[in-house]
Specification:
The structure holds two protein chains of two kinds. Helix content of chain A is 28%, strand content 24%. Chain A is an alpha/beta fold. In chain A, strands 1, 2, 3, 4, 5, 16, 17 and 18 form an eight-stranded mixed β-sheet that branches. An eight-stranded parallel β-sheet of chain A has the order 6-7-8-9-10-13-14-15. Chain A starts with a strand and ends in an 8-residue tail after the last strand. Chain B has two domains: 162 residues, Rossmann fold (3-Layer(aba) Sandwich), CATH 3.40.50; 153 residues, Aspartate/ornithine carbamoyltransferase (Rossmann fold, 3-Layer(aba) Sandwich), CATH 3.40.50.1370. Chain B is built from 13 helices and nine strands. Chain B has a five-stranded parallel β-sheet. A four-stranded parallel β-sheet of chain B has the order 2-1-3-4, sandwiched between helices. In chain B, strand 3, helix 5 and strand 4 form a beta-alpha-beta unit. In chain B, helix 6 packs across helix 13. Classes of the chains: A alpha/beta, B alpha/beta.
Amino acid sequence: MKWMITNAYLVDPASGREGYGAVAIADGRIVAIQEHPADSPTAPTIPGFTPDRIWDAERRVLAPALVDTYAHLTGPVLEQQTRLERELRGAAAGGIGHLVVAPDTAPPLDEPGLVEMLLERARRAAITDTLPLGALTVGLKGEQLAEMARLTAAGCIAFSQGDRPMRDTLALLRAMQYAASFDLPVWLTATDPDLSLPGGAHDGVVAARLGLPPIPVAAETVALTRLIELAAEAGVRLHVVNLSSERSVALLRRAKEEGLPISASVSALHLTMTERDIGAFDTNAHVIPPLRSSRDREALAAAVADGTIDVITSNHTTVGRDAKAYPFSESAPGAAGFETLLPLVLRWGESQGLSLAQTLAPVSSRAAALVDNDEWGRLAVGAPADLMLFDPDEPWIVDAQSLVGPAHNTPWWGLPLTGRVTHLMRRGVFVFERAAEPFRN
Amino acid sequence: MTSLQLTPDGRLRHLLTLDGLPEPILQQIFSLADSFLEVSERAVKKVPLLRGKSVFNIFFENSTRTRTTFEIAATRLSADVINLNIATSSTAKGESLLDTIDNLCAMMADMFVIRHAASGAPVRIAQHLAERGLDHVSVLNAGDGRHAHPTQGLLDMYTIRHYKKDFTRLTVAVVGDVLHSRVARSEIAALTTLGVPEVRVAGPKTLLPKALGELGVRVTHDLDEALDGVDVIMMLRLQNERMHGSFIATTAEYHECWGLTPERLKRAKPDAIVMHPGPMNRGVEIASSVADGPQAVILPQVTFGIAIRMAVFTLLAGVAPGGLT
């Protein structure tokens, strides 16, 4: 099928270019891009290209599909095809075309066979690309090294503990050294298990008022310092997942200035919410790391804008109603993130006064660079036609009617957001179209 | 939480926390307690205001003292009182908590008095009742984790009002383990609402939340400084489990630094009152001679507690009398 999508607002995060135009697609790739004035009455002609179908995007934004660099797939995704597909449909509804999956699935991704099973199911689903992180240690227990070479051969892009800690510092150093032997990066969260009290909240005014166990900023900075020093010792590429505090930004900046091979991410939730959003013990705002102060949020937002923090994640975690029905401290942590990713990133970009291309970079071109992919996150001739269409101004309410995936555990529940994905195209084929806007391939 | 515990027209639907509870409601509770105090002094200590109502005392955490005071208060109002002691096990929390509530609602409960080890558990129950449309059922928080103990806070304020009359001229010191204390949180919230101009909080850094200053109190680690010229001293209980381990070194050193002794008490105003929510650790946070001394009002606190709980029950039930006396 040869496509021409016209009258779209084209955004290329890789080059920073924006403007109205048309995109020609053949064999799953972008074959031509032609700018034209907004609301041009006729489709532009591209020499040597005769489209099978021409489609008017009605001035919506056409941009590369998002690259989400950290999400948890909970539940029986390895056993049940339908469960995996429901999650991936939620990701697609969020505009996510390429998804990095944390290894803390059930069971964890610590054997090549499990990785192959996940990839085979994802291939069959044909909704989004799935990039597994392998378990750094067997069972994510932080003791025995996992078979990293064989896991890489099975398709893992890096090694991680998910959100589980590595208590044993010597085991962590050896795991980093082992990964570095194959030039494999490690992706780790910075959470000190002793300081990060279970069921806690940021050691601030909300925890003080509600009487929740306080999690100090040091729970992150102590762990981050440990990671940085061990990674320098081991000579491993370190990606720190989901930072939450201003002081961590300073530590990260210094490590980068020293020239260490380090990168970092922050979740879209931490760029847009603070401890105050816990409100009256909202268990959907029970996340790890905890939502921190507005000062931390502002520092994180500025750090993504200036490139100190490389990418924005969904940190998506589906938690069922029952596990969230407990009192705050006893509820399971985690928030849904796929379908709110784009509107939250747009909100962040607006707060920083960024262009659309700059806004999307941490969830497209910069995220593609993190996973060593030079094709994704680009709207350019020759790039794969992995594209999303969205209306940046469309208001919508986060509720059971609007969400597509199974995850309803978001602190944005019942609240309005602006900006909504209407279509997702994968290799030139529409894999998601919002019900109100059906379009048949 | 204000929208949860008040009806749209501003009446008390649940009592979950004193944080954000408007001053007129506090004053209304105090006036009602005045009249119930009189009832407690009669030969027949009973009024029929809650006749036919079922009050369920659900204690997920053991507490004979608090449960008894709620039971006495409800009984004096002629309510039917059902006591449930549900020991929390690690597996039987949360959903079973809400399941328990659903079951008791089916038994036509009118009011739940809840004590739970987790902060926010009564809030969760109140939210659950709202989701179920059970607007006629009230939740009374009898202490949840470290969050709130509103009736204790109210009876403490009532005690201060009894001895000191005007809140707006007072300096109050709260001393001890604030970090783990739901009582301290309720006291601080109420003192602020009632317009106490200076609330000081003293204790070791390990037992004070970092952001305490943001709650509108003056924080110090020096007890002498905290007690200087105060009108009211509110001591907090040092919980047994904190007495050993990493929060404090030894109880002896704690007593030396933050225990209220007769010498220390001299720093306060001569007519200062000393309060304690009980049960006391004599010789740890408070010296026996102070606890039993003329400035201590610890036993009147207990007496006032019954009247305060009667007042809250009637307000929640919507049967608060206009002219009880």
